[in-house]
Design brief:
Elements (H helix, E strand, L loop, with lengths): L3 E12 L4 H12 L3 E5 L2 E7 L5 H10 L5 E13 H8 L3 E3 L3 E4 L11 E4 L12 H12 L6 E5 L5 H8 L4 E6 L2 H13 L5 E5 L12 E7 L2 H13 L1 E13 L3 H10 L2 E9 L2 E8 L3
Parallel strand pairs: 6-7, 8-9, 8-11, 9-10, 11-12
Antiparallel strand pairs: 1-3, 1-4, 2-3, 5-6, 12-14, 13-14
Helix pairs in contact: 1-2, 7-8
């Protein structure tokens, strides 16, 4: 089934390019922008029309007006079959020479321990973005056999699917976008994962879910992580592991500071192109 939506395209001319592009992209993602493209002199982003307000966009620009030069113009674009556009440009990704993330139309990678087939449609999570790649690196390093796993903001379901393939006993995947939940279910079928349950909702959904979890995966963004960290931690067994991603290096100290308030002990971090993923362990009380 094809998917199409009405989108707003915003074009930004930036000075300097770095680190302005990465910072602006992170801020725009929190307002609803779903995809980006680097241009010679800046950045282009796309957001569903029903999520766009000029006021929110201007707030982001004003926030950095004293630090960077940001010129912007935006306009509606014609409905696009994003699946077709994605298929034109989507290339397979290989992480740590262990895990391939590819589309259904790419050749299988039988030479790797894990070969994930992911069709993102409108959801986030193909490992092309640094935040997803960093999370996958953590998962590949861990022994997940028999663990109960929570995948918050599951997107395509790629993280939960990898955890399931690495031997997780059960995976609960939650996303507040209904199409992401549907996409996760489809990708579970593609990868023959049958021990992963998808739930439509946000952190409040954890109140109705059988807990606790041994491992929590939260690749979302800085503001959501800070707001919902207590809910995540309360869902974690003492001694359990929580992985955070979706924020820039400049914000890493904020995550660590908040984590201390919830009895989470810092256990390392990974950095890739100014994006950070952090690992914490819940203290045994």
């Amino acid at each position: 089934m094809t998917q199409s939506l009405n989108y707003i395209e915003a074009k930004f001319v930036l000075e300097p390019l770095d680190p302005t592009r990465e910072i602006l992209m992170a801020e725009l993602a929190e307002t609803g922008f779903e995809s980006f493209e680097f241009t010679e002199n800046g950045l282009t982003g796309w957001i569903p029309s029903d999520q766009f307000t000029p006021e929110s966009l201007q707030e982001v620009i004003d926030k950095y007006a004293q630090l960077f030069s940001i010129a912007c113009e935006h306009a509606p674009v014609q409905p696009v079959n994003w699946n077709e556009e994605w298929e034109k440009h989507y290339e397979p990704v290989v992480i740590n020479n262990q895990c391939s993330i590819r589309a259904p139309f790419h050749a299988p990678r039988h030479d790797l321990p894990f070969d994930l087939v992911i069709e993102p449609k409108m959801s986030f999570g193909t490992a092309h973005h640094d935040t997803t790649a960093l999370m996958i690196q953590w998962i590949l390093e861990m022994d997940i056999t028999g663990l109960h796993v929570l995948d918050m903001g599951c997107g395509t379901g790629v993280l939960g699917i990898l955890a399931a393939q690495k031997g997780a006993a059960k995976v609960i995947a939650i996303d507040n976008y209904i199409w992401a939940c549907e996409n996760t279910r489809e990708n579970c079928e593609r990868n023959r994962v049958n021990n992963m349950i998808t739930v439509h909702g946000d952190a409040d959904a954890l109140k109705e879910i059988n807990k606790p979890f041994d491992l929590v995966l939260a690749n979302i963004n800085r503001n959501v992580i800070l707001e919902d960290m207590k809910a995540y931690t309360d869902s974690l067994v003492p001694g359990g592991t929580i992985l955070f991603s979706g924020f820039l290096a400049d914000d890493a100290h904020l995550i660590r500071k908040e984590a201390l308030q919830h009895h989470l002990r810092f256990d390392g971090e990974k950095l890739q192109n100014q994006w950070v993923s952090q690992k914490f362990l819940k203290e045994k009380q």
